[in-house]
Amino acid sequence: MDALWNESEGDRASQCLATTVYRLRELLRAKDAVLYANGQLALNPRCCWVDVWALERHLLAIESACKAPCPDIEALSRRHHEIVQLYRGDFLDADRNYPWAETMREQLRARYLRVLRAWGQCLQQLDRHEEAALAYHQGLEINPLAEECYCQLMRCLITLDRQLLFVRQMPQQRSLGMLVVFDRTLANPMLVRVQLQRLEPLLDAA
């Protein structure tokens, strides 16, 4: 309550909370939408749809299905589309002043990235490298330093025999094992981390 009514005394803050919950229930037209138990308030999952809950369900389903011997790829593809639509950025990104949100923010980001990698690997095993490359690219949009996504993306593009054009080589990137590459199927140049010793002949000829 201190975060919401930090200037109010204990009884006054409690009264403000009770009034706010009452108004919220009236607004939602469902008295059971907001639950109170053991001094804690929570939304009722039977009455409310929450994007984070929906995202977590899809993430769990994809993660579990990718481990199955014969996953339903079409069903997984639909779920993949759903998580991309639901995850539009960090959890409560505009509210960085609330430490309690940071744990959820980090957990969702890490899990989303992990599921994208698992989905990409599943697609690679089925020789669907085009779709796998897209999954890894989406992972890099969340974390530009996700090394595994870089490596797997490069493998996909090499398997697809795509012509990579090295549009820029910056000394600091090369020292870090980073390259800027451009692929015809992707809209923008991207940083790719690779083992440079394997590509030195190509770099010298570029």
What can you see in these coordinates?
This protein is mainly alpha-helical and 206 residues long. It has eight helices and five strands. α2 packs antiparallel against α3, α4 packs antiparallel against α5 and α4 runs parallel beside α6. The relative contact order is 0.07.
List keywords for this structure.
single chain; 55% helix; two-stranded antiparallel sheet; elongated; 206 residues; 3-stranded antiparallel sheet
Briefly, what is this?
The chain has 206 residues and is mainly alpha-helical. The chain is 55% helix and 10% strand. It has a three-stranded antiparallel beta sheet with strand order 3-4-5.
Topology summary:
Layout (H helix, E strand, L loop, with lengths): L9 H19 L5 E4 L2 E4 L7 H15 L7 H14 L12 H27 L3 H14 L4 H13 L5 E4 L2 H5 L2 E5 L7 E4 L6 H6 L1
Antiparallel strand pairs: 1-2, 3-4, 4-5
